Amino acid sequence: MEKQSKWGILYCPKHATHNRHKFREKVEHCLLEKGVEYDLVQSENTKSVERLITMFINNGYKTIVVVGGDSALNDAANCLMNAEKHVRDEIALGLIPNGVMNDFASFWEMEVGEIEHNIDWIIARRVRKIDLGCIRYADKQGNRRHRYFLNSVNVGLLSDIMNLRRRTRRFFGSRILSFIFSFVLLLFRRKDYKMHVKINTDVVKRKIMMVCVGNALGYGQTPNAVPYNGLLDVSVVYHPEMMQLFEGFYLYLSGKILNHKSVHPYRTRRVDFVEVSNAPVNIDGRMLDNIHGDFRVEVEQEVLNFIMPC
After folding, report:
1. Is residue 140 scored above 80 in pLDDT?
2. Quick one: which of 165, 256, 271 has its CA closest to 212?
3. Are 302 and 124 in contact (CB under 8 A)?
4. What number of CA atoms fall less than 13 Å from residue 69's CA on the CB side?
5. DSSP 35-99
6. DSSP-assigned letters across all residues of 284-299
7. 104 Cβ partners below 8 Å, 6+ apart?
8. CB atoms closer than 10 angstroms to residue 47
9. pLDDT bucket at 5, cuts 50 / 70 / 90
10. Of 277, 266, 278, 269, which Cα lies nearest the Cα of 297?
11. Of 213, 209, 197, 208, which Cα lies nearest the Cα of 269?
């Protein structure tokens, strides 16, 4: 069968789970039952994800499916954005969620374990061009770099919390439990960063606890963001009092975090971080640790074909 109709599937196992091979077996069994022609390869690390996705692109696959979480999906999106536009426009990116962090899947109401539904949606091939966010920065060697994201860029304390959530999610096996544990840490590690941020015509120059720039849910910090309106949602969080933290925890779980008095929401096409006072930066759940100096975050509209749920 020609590559135009055969799927290229990248399987990214959860390395900390004992049943990682069983999930792959279930995926392949379902594919065979539905008569899907596919080539499946398995990643070992981040570099292998990029190499294998690039291999699919170069070999003419028109449907590339990631079986994994936000980080693997981020790698795939960046590989596609490295391809020529006429090549990328012929490729559709599908997702079967299986990661430690699956917030982009959650935006589309895709659940881990619903393998048959996920495959049916890819077969139906309901494609929509989606936006990607892009962070442009200089590395510590002075080289200009950029990185695309589907979910969000987080600057400040939330970046540390996201890193902790990734580690504790493997331990707890629950998105809610890992967040509760991270929230407890937040009670003891509240920290402000001196920042200078430009959003639209506003200039924010003060101590800030965290900033989330979301192309989608932003791990709950930008609940109204959607990856198809050509805009980014921004939540700037100032230092809350102790009791306000508990209120914020409740509002976060109920999807109403923007109602918190310490959260200041914006909607824009571009955010300039003039100064961040060595605040950690996290992109789609992964630390970006080679960033130096000022940077900007902007949106690129309708640049990637994504296979949505039916």
Report:
1. yes
2. 271
3. no
4. 19
5. T--EEEEE--SHHHHHHHHHHHHHTT-SEEEEEE-HHHHHHHHHHHHHS-HHHHTT-EEEEEE-S
6. TTEE--S-EEEEEEEE
7. 70, 73, 95, 150, 151, 216, 217, 284
8. 10
9. confident
10. 269
11. 213
DSSP 151: S
Is residue 168 within a helix (H) or strand (E), and if so which, with residue range? helix 157-172
* Rounded Cα distance, 194 and 98, in Å: 37
Q: Which residues contact 169 (CB under 8 A, 6 or more apart)?
A: 100, 101, 175, 178
Tokens of 308: 């949505």
Q: Is the pLDDT at 243 greater than 50, yes or no?
A: no
Lowest mean pLDDT among 16-20, 55-59, 236-240: 16-20
Measured CA angle at 43 (ends 39, 46), to 5 deg: 135
List residues bridging with 172 in a β-sheet: none
Place of tokens 């426009």: 89
Confidence tier at 192 by pLDDT (50, 70, 90): confident
